[in-house]
């Protein structure tokens, strides 16, 4: 069956991940530690403890950590268990989401498309492919980031994780792409930089292309991807013959 739809993870696949999300996460944790100073002291927590809980170890981001692969709800739940604040989890999650969204908007210069990606997306669009996004990021942050990167007009579908749809690796976002663009999963290829992205493609019945512009290495992606590219910018439709 011919491939007609190309679905992309956002950060680490289309946009630069490391500097952006390290800076954003550090800003969120600093704000959170000030807001919950008493709880931090009570549980002998440091900002490093909160960062490590989501997979940030100094300048290294764990490919299997919450920041790299999970929605903000999971990060909020992990921090909620550590801080045990007096508010409910739902309220705490809302606070954490707002802090992440604010940090993204406070750092627009860090929102950068990866080299060559925009030109490649334009060519694929011109060739008639339907293009979509499937990200663990929130709606507000997704739209803001894609607008700042000058990419948002290229996509037929924006799938994000904002608590109202099962996040990756559950297949719901890819199913939404198929419904929006009148496709079947077998007509779709998923591009991503994490093992979770590859599991997402597998669970949905789509093809899987790993890219090395994000958090996972070649060795981590190889057992799970149909094939691996250095970058989305290297993709040509002829690759699909593999």
Automatic annotation (TrEMBL):
Cited CDD domains: HAD_like
Query: Which Pfam family, an example, fits this chain?
Result: Hydrolase
Q: Does the keyword Transport apply?
A: no
**What are the EC numbers?**
3.1.3.18
Gene Ontology biological process terms from the UniProt entry: DNA repair
Q: Which UniProt keywords apply?
A: Hydrolase
Name the pathway: Organic acid metabolism; glycolate biosynthesis; glycolate from 2-phosphoglycolate: step 1/1
GO molecular-function annotation terms? phosphoglycolate phosphatase activity
Q: Give the catalysed reaction(s), semicolon-separated.
A: 2-phosphoglycolate + H2O = glycolate + phosphate
Can you supply one Gene Ontology CC term for this chain's record? cytosol
The family note in this entry says:
Belongs to the HAD-like hydrolase superfamily. CbbY/CbbZ/Gph/YieH family.
Protein name according to UniProt: phosphoglycolate phosphatase
């Amino acid at each position: 069956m011919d491939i007609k739809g190309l679905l992309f993870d956002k950060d680490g696949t289309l946009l630069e991940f490391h500097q952006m999300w390290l800076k954003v996460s550090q800003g969120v944790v600093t704000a959170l530690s000030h807001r919950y100073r008493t709880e931090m002291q009570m549980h002998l927590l440091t900002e490093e403890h909160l960062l490590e809980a989501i997979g940030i170890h100094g300048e290294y981001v764990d490919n299997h950590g919450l920041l790299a692969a999970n929605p903000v709800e999971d990060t909020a739940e992990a921090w909620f268990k550590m801080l045990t604040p007096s508010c409910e989890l739902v309220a705490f999650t809302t606070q954490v989401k707002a802090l992440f969204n604010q940090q993204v908007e406070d750092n627009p210069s860090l929102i950068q498309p990866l080299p060559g990606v925009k030109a490649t997306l334009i060519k694929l669009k011109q060739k008639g492919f339907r293009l979509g996004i499937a990200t663990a990021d929130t709606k507000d942050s997704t739209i803001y980031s894609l607008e700042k990167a000058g990419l948002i007009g290229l996509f037929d579908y924006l799938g994000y994780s904002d608590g109202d749809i099962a996040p990756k690796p559950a297949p719901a976002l890819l199913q939404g792409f198929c419904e929006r663009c009148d496709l079947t999963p077998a007509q779709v290829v998923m591009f991503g930089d994490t093992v979770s992205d590859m599991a997402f493609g597998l669970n949905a019945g789509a093809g899987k292309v790993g890219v090395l512009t994000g958090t996972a290495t070649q060795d981590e992606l190889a057992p799970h991807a149909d094939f691996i590219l250095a970058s989305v910018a290297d993709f040509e439709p002829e690759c699909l013959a593999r």
